[in-house]
């Protein structure tokens, strides 16, 4: 597969019911909410983790950023993880006589060859390498920096949300010893959102792609990871997340993109935001988005699209069939398939 040569923008919308799409560990793991707007926030780190987990667990792809423990159960740090990419039996004798920079280049090549997440999102990787010059002691230190071609803004709900505090019982007593036996279960507490419809915006930069060697095949796996990865989360707080829309705009003009596509979708509902509980309670107004795409159609190669059939759209105040997007904008539209 060839390295990508065109810039793209991505819109991804998904929802969750009675869950926590992204807890804040510094605030009792409560859902992240903008205090001023009451909008639910989801970090790009959360989405990238979803993608990484799916690509590694379901597609057999190697990812650099993942939890790896040694035989004693200790978690690897970045320096130790980087050394995994120097483990080549054919090179072991040669490595002893290589300079820091030579070994650094080997690590860089091996990471880009093997790790799809670094080709997609980039990474800053600390290095500590033993060289002939410094066989004793800690070795020479440095780092590798790859700027990721794929970047996402923080996800935001398209409506105000309300947080609910729930109490329940656990499965076991809090303590059990011969001198301290309990007849009661432990209590648990958690904070959830009854409903949140979340929009992510992303961009794929063709210039950065040349440095990480990002290919068309990698981008196809990215889209699959976004959609199917979201569906595959089965933890208590994430179960039930459902992807609703995935749209990718591919440009023909070099070094160009429209930008801020996420600001061109509005939520329409006849009930207060805080009472929304299902995707059928809302419609997505894509009037501004359609008009912008139509206006810039000469700079756009095509649009890729995948939509859940329960999503309803509006254009100019009237119901809109998303299947007519190509006809309405004059841009070729093709369905995303996995």
TrEMBL record:
<dbReference type="Pfam" id="PF05107">
    <property type="entry name" value="Cas_Cas7"/>
</dbReference>
<dbReference type="InterPro" id="IPR013419">
    <property type="entry name" value="CRISPR-assoc_prot_Cas7/Csh2"/>
</dbReference>
<protein>
    <submittedName>
        <fullName>Type I-B CRISPR-associated protein Cas7/Csh2</fullName>
    </submittedName>
</protein>
<dbReference type="GO" id="GO:0043571">
    <property type="term" value="P:maintenance of CRISPR repeat elements"/>
</dbReference>
<dbReference type="InterPro" id="IPR006482">
    <property type="entry name" value="Cas7_Csh2/Csh2"/>
</dbReference>
């Amino acid at each position: 597969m060839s390295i990508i040569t065109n810039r793209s923008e991505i819109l991804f919308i998904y929802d969750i019911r009675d869950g926590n799409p992204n807890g804040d560990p510094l605030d009792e793991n409560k859902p992240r909410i903008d205090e001023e707007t009451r909008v639910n926030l989801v970090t790009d780190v959360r989405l990238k983790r979803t993608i990484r987990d799916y690509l590694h667990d379901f597609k057999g792809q190697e990812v650099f950023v993942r939890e790896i423990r040694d035989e004693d159960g200790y978690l690897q740090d970045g320096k130790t993880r980087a050394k995994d990419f120097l483990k080549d039996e054919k090179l072991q004798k040669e490595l002893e006589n290589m300079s820091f920079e030579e070994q650094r280049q080997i690590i860089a090549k091996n990471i880009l060859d093997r790790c799809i997440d670094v080709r997609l999102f980039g990474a800053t990787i600390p290095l500590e390498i033993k060289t002939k010059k410094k066989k004793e002691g800690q070795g020479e230190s440095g780092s590798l920096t790859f700027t990721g071609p794929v970047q996402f803004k923080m996800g935001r709900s398209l409506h105000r949300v309300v947080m609910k505090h729930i109490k329940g019982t656990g499965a076991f007593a809090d303590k059990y010893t011969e001198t301290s036996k309990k007849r009661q279960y432990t209590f648990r507490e958690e904070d959830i959102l009854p409903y949140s419809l979340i929009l992510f915006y992303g961009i794929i930069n063709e210039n950065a792609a040349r440095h990480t060697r990002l290919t068309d095949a990698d981008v196809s796996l990215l889209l699959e990871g976004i959609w199917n990865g979201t569906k595959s989360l089965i933890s208590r707080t994430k179960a039930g997340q459902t992807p609703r829309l995935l749209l990718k705009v591919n440009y023909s003009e070099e070094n160009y993109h429209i930008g801020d596509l996420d600001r061109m979708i509005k939520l329409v509902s006849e009930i207060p935001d805080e009472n929304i509980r299902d995707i059928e309670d809302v419609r997505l107004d894509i009037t501004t988005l359609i008009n912008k795409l139509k206006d810039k159609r000469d700079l756009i190669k095509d649009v890729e699209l995948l939509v859940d059939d329960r999503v309803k759209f509006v254009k100019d105040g009237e119901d809109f069939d998303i299947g007519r997007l190509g006809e309405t904008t004059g841009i070729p539209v093709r369905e995303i398939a996995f």
